[in-house]
Amino acid sequence: MSVGATVGILFTPTVWTALDDVSIWTQNWPWIPTLKYGEVKGVPTVSKMCESGCAVKVRTVAGEAFGTEGNVDNPISGGGICPLCANGVQVMNSPTRIKAPMLKGAEISWDEAKQLVTEKLAAAGNKVAVISGDQTGTINEVFSALLTSQGSDAFYVMPCEMQAADKAWSGLMGGSGQVGYDLENADVVLLAGADALESWGPTVANMKAFAANESGKFLFAGPVQTRTAAVTSKWVPVPTEGMAAFTLGLCYYVMQAGRSVPAADFEQFKAMVMSGYTPAKVEAATGVSADTMADIARTLLSASNPVVIPSGSVAADAAAFALNLLLGGAMKVLPEFAKAIDGAMSRSEMLKKDILQGVSADLLLVYEANPAYALPEQVKAGFTVAFDCVETETTAAADLVLPTPHSFERFDDLASPYGLAAATYALGAPVSKPTVSVMNAGDFVLGLAALGFETFEDVLDAKVAAIGADKRALVGGAVHVLAETPDLSGVTLASSVLGKAAVPVKGSGAVALAPYTLLNVGTANQATTPNAPCTISNNQLVGDFLVVMMASVTAKKLGVDVGSKVKLSGGSGECSALVQIYEGVLPGVVAAPLGLGHTVGDEFSKGKGDNVYKILTVSSEAATGTSTWAGSTVNIAKI
Amino acid sequence: MEERKSSKRCGGVLPFIIGFLATCVLGWAVIPGLFFEEIEQPIRFSHAIHVEDQGMECDSCHNFREDGSYAGFPSNEGCADCHAVEAEEVMEAIAEAGIDPADYDAIMKAELDAIEGSLLSSSDENKQAEREYVVKYLIQGKEVPWLNYQYQPDNVYFSHQAHAALDIAEMAELKNELSSVVDKSVFDEPAEQNCNLCHLKDIDKSDTPPPFERNVLSGYSKMTMKMWKCERCHALKGQPNACYTCHK
Amino acid sequence: MEIKEFKIKWGMVIDIDKCTGCGACMVGCQVENNIAPMTKKDPYNYVQALTTDRDDAANKLRTLTWMNVYEMSNRKAFPEHEVAYLPRPCMQCGHPACVPVCPVVATDKNEEGGIVSQIYPRCIGCRYCMAACPYHARYFNWWDPLWPEGMDKGLSPNASVRPRGVVEKCSFCHSRYLGAKDKARAEGNDPMDLPDGAYITACAEICPTKAITFGDLNNPEHRVHELAKGKNAFRLLEKLGLDPQVYYTSEREWVRLQGDNYNGDGGHGTPSNHG
């Protein structure tokens, strides 16, 4: 009978459908996530994942954010995004989000936090300082207004190009407003150290301008053949500390050809350059041959709309501004947007203080910056309050940690990132609802002192009204642009200072250090994102080891080869790394990537590589009185 | 050993036939049913009330979006057009009445005015169904997790827009070739909606949604259309049967 | 075997002189296609914990980079050194090497548009296709996808999540093609005649320098049609005769020569027809 039953069952669908169902069961393991479906939208907003900030569209399905794309209609993005924003949603959903206010590691309520900070503020009086990692937002007006109401002017930004440029333009040259560069319409662009197509300034806007500028000729000068140099027509090897001299050397040729600037100290400037920055002297100081200099100068002189974009020290910036004024090309000066809060500092005022000289305060408020990682030695405070979205070295070391909403979860704005050709304002509304207990830093600070506003959204409304923009249009992804140009009549060429400041100064170590930033590896404030580690090449990281690059000539001199384990000592620390031979590095220079070596963070960034910020040396630019990392040197020993 | 005692040993042909027939009957009539478990929809949604009584059109809730995608299950946003309730008001009322906001049964039993005022049904049964929707989903801001009779796994991409132009009258001509895919009764009366080719006929007249029959092994619905059915119709209508036409 | 001809042929032209190697295309591709970040530890799998760790992104032999950016060098010493970056998606070959070797027909080139399909439930993970592909464009799921806690609530609806044991590859964001066809139908247009830009891959859309141009190589109204015929256009490993649908262009001759694995000691192969 059992035989009959067995044969019988085969004539029914039982066995066959059961097999089919089992095979389907093997395809649908319960631990594999399933997808959600619904209406797909692209919601425009502003992103602060990199220092400049960008305009993006967050893609949502059934209201849940899953990815990002660029905003084609917004001039800051033009449809593209960088690798950081491409992973923005994943950072927003990361388990390293700070879940609630934490006092020395223990969770407290927002009310308790507010009470505590109010007390600390009263006790600190005017010994309160702010470090802001956001270069472009109106949140800075809130923080600076708080400071001025306490009688303090200790507003600090993390070391950045915007600050160096401001010190050069308004500090040394008596200009007002912010310098910008019209990359899209320039016919010759000399990137004097500015890694504009990788990590300098508003990177995505730069790349969009580069793409649109089909006929423009781009030249890159710097110690390392960076990713920018992969697409420019020429790489001019120039050491970082020699960039100012290099630029003044170009001024020599340009003035020899008869160009001038109607500045009060023009004659002084000309005399200084013609005697101190002759081709021979520049060749001796920087290694760039007179022929190369003449060639570049010729290219700049024959262009109808050239622009020089500097990077690095204040002297290099000032020299480049002088060169731009002589050439009369695509350098722009942007007016500042009207303030929303009366007591707030202007952008120039915010950029005045030099963080590399050190910070000392009774109460320190750090907003979305990571000084404990990028400035290990210099920050000291009695009580530190860190505002941030994800766990960082700074939040781990802070006394009080206050979680902020992610860029896509809050109202935020963006005013003229340094480098844009026109004064541009963008505003973003929240796309997602936060799932952890966060408060907009602006709302928190407004609750500490009577600054005239209840919420940060009110401040933004006031800002929009003050600048005469349309909030609806802004929230929909448009920008507001100011066309005016500040008065350039009082501008000088800083001749008394520039001559001395442009002399290259190097540290005492054996090898020059050229640190570089790649967005996919991470910036000073934002570590590498979850999907990015597979994009990090073995020129930056091999396994968990930092990789430094040098030319074969340098390697031979140091007695190392590909894969050699070395120790780099400089600044206040040391890093261990593996050597990679890369012919795109100036001999005598070692190139090291910034952004690795995190000790706090998620599994994708923690414990990978080493922190090159540790070995940068801070030197004081003698003449300009500002601190700089240019001219950092290291000693390399084989391990 | 020439005598074969086989027939005596195995008892003959009869037990074989009995066994065979028994399993055939079981295998066709009983066992297939055991593969499925019935699960009720989270809310007893009555199409009859909304379509017949309220005179709503199918596409007030089931419609195409601008980008061509299909909004099959309406979201709370759509339902709130009529079943509007101030979530904050209700939460306050719950707190005032001293009920634990997580205890849905207690909230419903309390028959709070803030909720009762929004109920649009007349009969007690219908009121209870509405109350459940409001308390468990609408005020929580949660979408109702409707169970999809036509469930397809993630690797399948089905486009309603591509099938929107199918004329059911034309399809009726192929009803014999399609008999394994579509039940012939679909074409019987003046068939209006081509939706009936795949979806439950007369669902718009039902007062209680039929239970979702879930396959205990695979997790799919009993009505999940398998690949061969899609391929058959595609082949008959001259549409491509390339893998990527339907997969992702 | 003949090369399959389709009326529509989706392809790309990638301008190497515009690619800065930033990696946005790689990250965007992973987000669009639900590729999980590589996590070393699996807190849910106790058995896993007893054996080895999973692989993290440092092991480049295990990463799932459907779009992968390579660094090219002209191999000269300082200061003549030049560098270039080359993004490499699946070539969607006209005469694919991977299709004929699949024992279960999990991959095929049978859809109008010429995108080589990869059907995950059908794949048995034998990896013959990976061995066959000379572009290394196919990737195997050595591990189950594992997102960090909470990160998988926001997944893209455009690609199913693959379990371990199946091969996957770039699909030219095929769901977007289906979506574009739906949109065309909704607007009353012909879904088989999409205008330039109606269907664009995630990598082409995201690229900040617009180095990647995507479109129908057969349609004269699409930009790729002319760009692919440019005098500096070339394809990778032309001599293998696989007829890839991804073209590259560069004004630099050393880049073009390396595209066909030029050895520098004389002559690169000429395209040949296989059987």
Task: Say what oligomer this is.
Answer: heterotrimer
Total beta strand runs of chain B: 4
Q: Distance N terminus to C terminus of chain C? A: 6 Å
Whole-number total of structural domains of chain C: 1
Keywords (chain B): Membrane, Transmembrane, Transmembrane helix
Protein name (chain B): Cytochrome c, class III, conserved region
Organism (chain B): Pseudodesulfovibrio aespoeensis (strain ATCC 700646 / DSM 10631 / Aspo-2)
Protein name (chain C): 4Fe-4S ferredoxin iron-sulfur binding domain-containing protein
Summary?
Chain A is α/β, with parallel strands linked by helices. In chain A, strands 5-4-16-15-14-6-7 form a seven-stranded mixed β-sheet. Chain B has helices spanning 6-10, 13-34, 47-53, 76-79, 87-96, 104-110, 113-116, 124-138, 160-163, 168-172, 227-236; strands spanning 36-39, 63-64, 70-71, 212-215.
Structure description:
The complex is a heterotrimer of chains A (639), B (248) and C (275). Chain A has 22 helices and 28 strands. With 639 residues, chain A is α/β, with parallel strands linked by helices. Chain A has three domains: 102-158 and 354-424 and 434-468, Rossmann fold, CATH 3.40.50.740; 162-334, Dimethylsulfoxide Reductase, domain 2 (3-Layer(aba) Sandwich); 505-638, Barwin-like endoglucanases (Beta Barrel). In chain A, strands 5-4-16-15-14-6-7 form a seven-stranded mixed beta sheet. A seven-stranded mixed beta sheet of chain A has the order 21-22-24-23-28-20-25, with helices on one face. Chain A has a four-stranded parallel beta sheet with strand order 11-10-9-12. The longest helix of chain A is centred in the first third of the chain and has 15 residues, at 110-124. The radius of gyration of chain A is 27 Å and the shape is globular. Chain B is mainly α and 248 residues long. Chain B has a domain at 148-248. A two-stranded antiparallel sheet of chain B has the order 1-4. The longest helix of chain B has 22 residues, at 13-34. The radius of gyration of chain B is 25 Å and the shape is globular. The N and C termini of chain B lie far apart (66 Å). Chain C is of the alpha+beta class. Chain C has one domain (10-258): Alpha-Beta Plaits. Chain C has helices at residues 24-32, 46-50, 128-132, 174-186, 202-206, 223-227, 253-258; strands spanning 10-15, 68-73, 83-88, 107-108, 117-118, 138-140, 167-169, 212-216, 233-234, 246-249. In chain C, strands 8-1-10-9 form a four-stranded mixed beta sheet. A two-stranded antiparallel ribbon of chain C has the order 2-3. A two-stranded antiparallel sheet of chain C has the order 4-5. The longest helix of chain C is centred in the middle third of the chain and has 13 residues, at 174-186. Chain C is globular and about 55 Å long. Chain C starts with 9 loop residues before the first strand and ends in a 17-residue tail after the last helix. Mean pLDDT of chain C is 91; it is low at 266-275. The B-C interface holds B 64, 66-69, 153-155, 157, 159, 161-162, 164, 240, 242-245, 247-248 and C 108, 110-112, 115, 117, 119-121, 158-161, 171, 174-175, 178-179, 181-187, 191.
